[in-house]
Amino acid sequence: MQTAPVIPPAAPNSPLVESSTLGKYRWTICSLVFFATTVNYLDRAVISLLKPYLEVEFKWNSGDYANIEIAFKLAYSLGMLGVGRIIDKLGTKMGYALSTFLWSLAAIGHAFVSSTLGFSVARAFLGVTEAGNFPAAIKTTAEWFPQKERALATGIFNSGSNVGAIIAPLSVPIIAETIGWQWAFIITGALGFVWLVLWFYFYEVPARHAKLTKAEFDYIHSDVDDLAAASIETEPKVSWFKLLTFRQTWAFVLGKFLTDPIWWFYLFWLPDFLNKQYGLKGTAVSLPVAVVYILSSVGSIGGGWIPLNFIRNGWPAFKARKTSMLLIALCVFPIVFAQKLGQVDMWLAVLVIGIAAAAHQAWSANIFTTVSDMFPKRAVASVTGIGGMAGGLGGIALTALVQKRMFVHYESIGQLDKAYFIMFWICGAAYLLAWVLMHFLAPRMKKIDLG
């Protein structure tokens, strides 16, 4: 359990040391969370790149692969239901470490699977353990950054998901070709243990960080609404049932339910799209996939910078956040033209998909930050977990009701391009619908009082 801080919070009018860049220790913490998120996404992306090898060895079709994907998403969703509560109880240091340790074991475990059912079990274990990353990361950000910097910090660490997805296509096919697909799971999974060493060496909450200056501590807790919360959560935790009575919770839940599945689609089906539409196989798929995720990294950090720039120009935080999210949602829509552009040149399709993926990451940086905008720190991991569960369920629904049935059907009649056409329209519309619903439920993103 976390204890009260040993450093007193700043008075509202005390001088603060502010910089346009992250403070020394805030940068260290952000880097650690970035590294964890990179490993998290690298581990989950490996199977999409090994799909051609595993299809041959285990005789998979699109339905088999979709079932394995559903096993991961279902476990991820169920994990999200409880992991936020665990992290709120254990604290970020031990909660994050436990999650990373377990998902690294699960990732390595894929190498020892010998059946399709075994892959479903391994993916389920990976899903339930990987669920801890984002609740822990968002809670860490809420503890270490003032409100105006949280979207930028979230954008930076969330870009790790893109870096993981970039590293995967540049390394996994080479490993598979040279020493076998099993070693791709082992090598990537082992990176989590490297992170654990760094985490225990460098991380501590601000209140107990031995080298944190009072000026930086005061800056972290410089929000007026944050002064009372500087004690790092000594109040009782809040039940899920109470959290679900707030419109703000449902705004986040619906936003995640509608948009998370789109990122799952990119992650699990992009290599297949390039294979089936343009005949790219093995290492040939590496560069186009890497380009998409390089663009995503730019979008992730840019998505955090946009509202920060608005706030610096005097906008209230909620207006800055919502305006940014609307602009981002509009940037996704051109993906509906991906196949038309691809008929001219494959790289035009890659570019428009990359822009849409970048917009998703920009959206993600902001939607995650709405949790700490609207909820006190003691509820952040729990609300993030509830929303993450909703995102996972949305991914399951999309895979089971749309992708699995639709892709299998159109593949059986030799018209798989129609399935991708429908999916790209779903991608283009999802964010605009999510923005409208979030605006209706939480128009000013008012911070709730949990009593």
Automatic annotation (TrEMBL):
This is MFS transporter. Its main location: membrane. The chain crosses the membrane at residues 95-113, 181-202, 250-270, 290-311, 323-341, 347-368, 380-402, 422-442. It is found in: Membrane. It comes from Hymenobacter aquaticus. One of its GO terms (cellular component) is membrane. PROSITE patterns: MFS. InterPro entries: MFS, MFS_dom, MFS_Na/Anion_cotransporter, MFS_trans_sf. CDD domains: MFS_ExuT_GudP_like (cd17319). Residues 29-446 form the Major facilitator superfamily (MFS) profile domain. Keywords: Membrane, Transmembrane, Transmembrane helix. GO terms for molecular function: hexuronate transmembrane transporter activity. SUPFAM superfamilies: MFS general substrate transporter (SSF103473).
